[in-house]
Amino acid sequence: MYTQAMDVPDGSNPAASAPDSGSPQQRAHFDATIAADGRIEPQDWMPEAYRQTLLRQISQHANSEIVGMLPEGNWISRAPSLKRKAILIAKVQDEGGHGLYLYGAAETLGTSRADMIAALHSGRAKYSSIFNYPALSWADVGVIGWLVDGAAIMNQIPLCRCSYGPYARAMIRICKEESFHQRQGFDALLAMMRGTPAQQAMVQDAVNRWWWKCLAMFGPPDADSEHSAQSMRWGIKRIGNDELRQQFIDATVPQAEVLGVTLPDPELKWNAERSHYDHGAIDWEEFRSTLAGYGPCNRERLATRVAAHENGRWVREAALAHARKQQQRNTEDAS
Amino acid sequence: MTTPPLKDWPLWEVFVRSKQGLEHKHCGSLHAADARQALHLARDVYTRRQEGVSIWVVPSAAITASNPDDKAELFDPAADKIYRHPSFYDIPDDVGHM
Ligand SMILES: [Fe+2]
Ligand SMILES: [Fe+2]
């Protein structure tokens, strides 16, 4: 999942800096490929700003997949049944796989996974701000699947047509796996809504806490996003933030009705003239401050990530030492 | 003996054959310490939903790829050899399917 505001600046501004080495022919070829809606492949020449933008977006996306494992991972040992536990393990495992596909796609742009992980762990690289909120009850796990994965799917489907081949291919694979994520979340919530009043209240409480954060996942309004416009011209981004957000709201309102929950926005109502739902204003200050590191769980998430990486270090080193020893033995046998 | 400091495990390309009778198809890459581990990880990452019945892993460094700058030289000559396609030939309708 999880690409939200993936054109979030991280201090660098590739579009403005970045000298280009390309010849006029190379540049013309690139422009023609983009104009014809073709795909740019790793070995093709590309403007440095295009490469930097993709690198930032894909690595942020990959970071979001693996940080996204944490809020739900906390619930694996506390899932209410063996069935729900098995489902949750499968979902969290999928997210790890999504991270792998995306780091792989980013590596084709000339960076290493180790460098990207280091950037994440040092706080230099961003990930989706949605994971800086806590998953307080079992209903949160259902709501994350239904709304957070649901919003991510809206965001990710157009990325399957991204102009950079490796990213588009990774997204196709990811989108195939995502639909189960949203459905299992909705299914878990449906079970609770058919349960006791206390269970129903838990679901409503979780929806109240997550709804606005999910709307913010689509990123700032297009009018405020210069990055967005450049990404559209390059065919990296296909649909604007506001349009995707509207699609998500329009799709979600009827689902909420089936579920029997209220979406916490008094201004949310059908506008027959536009054939869309109108909605209230999003608190962008809160979004920006969470992204900047001041959300309720930023420290905890990063600390958990770093600890997992450090605790696994000896495994990575042992596997490599074993492989080297094996190789050495083989060459000795051969001589 | 001094070993270089660990960065990433080496990169492998993964090919999966989805059914008996079909060819292996490239499906992605992964990092692994050795071939056996690469196979193991490929199974976990790329075949969790019965996507395959056979996996190949190849060190990425072992792949030689054609140079994109040679694209025209390599592939364009095929463009004007339309007689290599069945649609080039007009066969009378009475012949039926051929
Ligand atoms: Fe995902
Ligand atoms: Fe997901």
Mean pLDDT of chain B: 89
Q: How many β strands of chain B by DSSP? A: 3
Largest sheet of chain A: 2 strands, antiparallel
Helical residue percent band of chain B: 10-25%
Q: Rg of chain A from C-alpha positions?
A: 22 Å
Q: Distance N terminus to C terminus of chain B? A: 68 Å
Give the overall form of chain B. flat
Strand order of the largest sheet of chain B: 2-1-3
Poorly predicted regions of chain B = 1-5
Structure class of chain A: mainly alpha
What spatial order of strands do you see in the largest sheet of chain A? 1-2
Estimated share of beta-strand residues of chain A: under 5%
Bound molecules: fe (ii) ion
How many DSSP H or I helices of chain A? 13
Instruction: Give the largest interface.
Output: A-B, 28 and 20 residues
Give Rg of chain B in angstroms.
22 Å
* Major sheet of chain B: 3 strands, antiparallel
Secondary structural class of chain B = alpha+beta
Note the total helix count of chain B.
Answer: 2
